[in-house]
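Bug #77: duplicate submission created two jobs. Keeping one. Sequence:
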Amino acid sequence: MALDGEYEPSPQQWVRDQVERYEATGGREANTLRDTGLPVVIYSTRGAKSGKVRKQPLMRVEHDGAYLMVGSQGGAPTHPAWVSNLRAHPDQVTVQDGPEPRDGVARELTGEERAQWWDRAVAAYPSYADYQKKTDREIPIFLVTPRS
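Kept job's structure:
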């Protein structure tokens, strides 16, 4: 089920276009990262300050029904905005991996669990390892599990 409330599209045109096409086709189209051929899913979060619904396509890192959100931002020095959203509203996230979004709950990973999921992330998208080398910050990762 989708998050209720006003949707604020991304300021980046390619993100807006991809989210719109993915949702319009139930994930049959616009389901890969640009020209990589690697799969993405659409995450919806609640804005930390605005309270508006925000959507972003992120690499598909899934294991046993749980999904990982990787805050790499290509190795930029700052976290993507959605990191603040999840920290403020970890219980207001949906994952759309196909036709229907599913409600989830996010938690930031640390320690051994983080290391295990980081390895899965790098296996799904090897550029994550390069992104971590490009930045001084530890790239935050959040595990999204189905809401019970």
